[in-house]
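Section: protein folds

Sequence with per-residue C-alpha cells
===
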Amino acid sequence: MTLRTTNQLYSRKFSGQLSYNDSKGKLIRLYIKEYPSLTDYDDKYRLVNQQFVCGVPLNPTLRPDFDITDYRDRDPEELEDWENTPYIVSRNWEQIEEALIRDMEILKAHSPHKYASQLNAMVEHLSLGRTEWFKAYPSGTCYEVRCLDRRFSERPSVWGTTSTLIAAIKLAKNGKEPEA
C-alpha cells in the first residue's frame, strides 16, 4: 500500500492530488482544485515566536498557505526567517485519518459519482493504512523534517521522516539524508 499526496502551485492555482492503491493494487487518484489567497505574514508565524526543541522548531505555526507559496510571492521577512531553517512537523495516525476523510468529503461535494465509486476502496485503504503506519511509526507518531531550501520553488522540501523525535532532531541538525 502506498499513499502519496502532492501539492503544486501554478499561477496561484492550487491543485492537490491524493493517490493511493486499492486492495487490488490499482492506483487511484483524486484531484482537488482550489484558488487560495495568500495569508499575511503575521508575528505569530515569525521564527522567534515558535517552540524549539534542542534548537529546532517543532510544529511551528506557519501560514495556512506556507506549503503552497512560490518563493517570489513570499514576504521578505518570511524568507529571512524560514529559508534554510529545518523544522519538524509531528503527525499521528488520527491526523492522517482526519485528512483523508476531509479529502473524501471534498470529493463528495465536487464529484458525488466518483466519491460513491471510491468509498469502499478508501475505507479499505484506511484500514490497511493504519497497519502500515504503526509498522513504520510504532509510537503512532511520525516526525517529518522539512526545510524551505529552494529545492522546490513552491514549497518546502521534506528531508525525511523518522519514528522518534530524537532522530528527527539529528536529521534537522545534520542535514538531508543522502539521495539514493
Remarks:
- The beta strands are 3-10, 13-21, 27-34, 52-53, 56-57, 87-92, 141-147, 157-162.
